[in-house]
Write a structure and sequence with these properties.
Largest sheet: none
Distance between the termini: 24 Å
Structural class: mainly alpha
Low-confidence stretches: 322-383, 385-394
Shape: globular
Strand content: under 5%
Mean pLDDT: 82
Length: 394
């Protein structure tokens, strides 16, 4: 319940704070007046500030934070790597080049979003095509292809900066890449939300399959999961979310890398609970950071600077004060109790296909106990590693 209420409370708080402070009661009445016939006792300028300036920005921050966080959680489960972020396949670098190209060509804000979104999808498509070998998509090949594609589009972005006008175009490109929500409007939210919502719904629908895929491709295939189709679904959904987010507000780092670890320490490694928790944690974090960006200085601070600097401050505090890490040590995952074979059988029963895969499951259960114990040890070590990564990065 706390994870549900927290983003809503921060949403109301973000509508209150700014150059002009507005009381929570006034904010709630102004929002209610948009739907109900309520007597308007406030000025028109105050309503414009809350409804047309702060509300679109806060909604966009929530959507972007939630989308990046759930994308990072899904990728970390698919790649079985705690250091994976949503831009591992090159979508951020490709979207950045698309936005820089639009700025060079003096296109409108809508055309900039379209070009950035299109290039983001194109970059991931190239990554997936390069990683495809013998009708299979190995995880290592995906990561290496993503590094190659990201480096290629980063080089193109550097070339675009080189030929840009240093008086107008180059500062615009640099500022856009730092990330900001200052151009958010209700129209922008209406354009971005469908893509982020579609990707989020797709990830939530396959969240239980991510539990199987995180055990490894061979184990997932033994339990009947079509791993290649599942990888395609995850990549498409995360790319939709990340490309839509980057095309709207620029590159915002650390959210998709760190927030999944925070959610994992709160609810555990089960993706059926982890993905919804990542949505709440990511939305709350970006809302708080955006409020700081608007009020901490005389001019707005780019979001990308704050997300990186806040993580460094938190990391220093945890290193200086070990008590902050208490309760996040090694512990067995509650979802992985028992030996590995019994865990696989429970997953089969939850899936509803026990009859179809009973023979394979029995073969796994009757296998050598040494392999089973080793499997359990790896699962336990993975849970402990996630907690250590969360402590270090935070």
């Amino acid at each position: 319940m706390t994870l549900v209420v927290l983003p809503l409370l921060l949403l109301v708080l973000s509508l209150c704070v700014g150059r002009l402070d507005v009381g929570p009661g006034d904010v709630l009445r102004i929002l209610a007046a948009q739907l109900l016939p309520i007597h308007r006792s406030w000025t028109e300028s105050l309503e414009i500030i809350v409804v047309q300036i702060r509300l679109p920005r806060a909604l966009l921050a929530m959507c972007v934070g939630a989308g990046l966080s759930i994308s990072g959680a899904a990728f970390q489960g698919m790649f079985r790597n705690p250091l994976v972020s949503p831009d591992v396949l090159g979508v951020s670098a490709a979207s950045g080049f698309g936005a820089a190209l639009a700025i060079l060509l003096s296109r409108s804000a809508l055309e900039l979003q379209i070009l950035a979104f299109t290039f983001g999808l194109l970059g991931v498509a190239i990554t997936y095509a390069l990683a495809r070998t013998y009708q299979m998509t190995p995880i290592l090949m995906l990561v290496l292809s993503g590094v190659v594609v990201a480096a290629f589009f980063s080089a193109l972005l550097s070339a675009a900066k080189l030929v840009a006008d240093p008086e107008n175009k180059l500062p615009a490109i640099t500022y856009w890449l730092l990330g900001s929500f200052n151009a958010a409007t209700l129209r922008t939210v209406a354009i971005v939300v469908p893509a982020i919502a579609a990707g989020t719904i797709g990830l939530l629908l396959v969240s239980w399959k991510l539990n199987l895929l995180s055990m490894g491709d061979e184990e997932a295939r033994a339990l009947g999961v079509r791993t290649e189709q599942l990888k395609i679904v995850i990549v498409v959904c995360t790319t939709l979310i990340t490309a839509a987010a980057v095309s709207t507000c620029g590159v915002i780092g650390w959210v998709g890398l760190v927030m999944p670890h925070v959610a994992r320490t709160l609810v555990g490694p089960d993706h059926r609970r982890l993905l919804p928790a990542a949505l709440s944690v990511g939305a709350s974090y970006v809302l708080a950071i955006d409020a700081i960006a608007r009020t901490a200085a005389a001019v707005e601070i780019p979001i990308g600077i704050l997300t990186a600097s806040m993580q460094r401050v938190a990391s220093w505090a945890r290193l200086k004060h070990p008590v902050l890490t208490r309760g996040q040590g090694d512990s067995d995952s509650t979802s992985c109790r028992g030996n590995g074979a019994e865990y696989r059988l429970r997953l089969c029963r939850l899936w509803g296909r026990r009859a179809a895969f009973s023979e394979r499951a029995e073969r796994v259960r009757d296998g050598p106990s040494v392999q089973t114990d080793g499997r359990r040890q790896r699962v336990d070590n993975g849970q402990s590693e996630h907690r250590r990564v969360a402590v270090i990065l935070l």
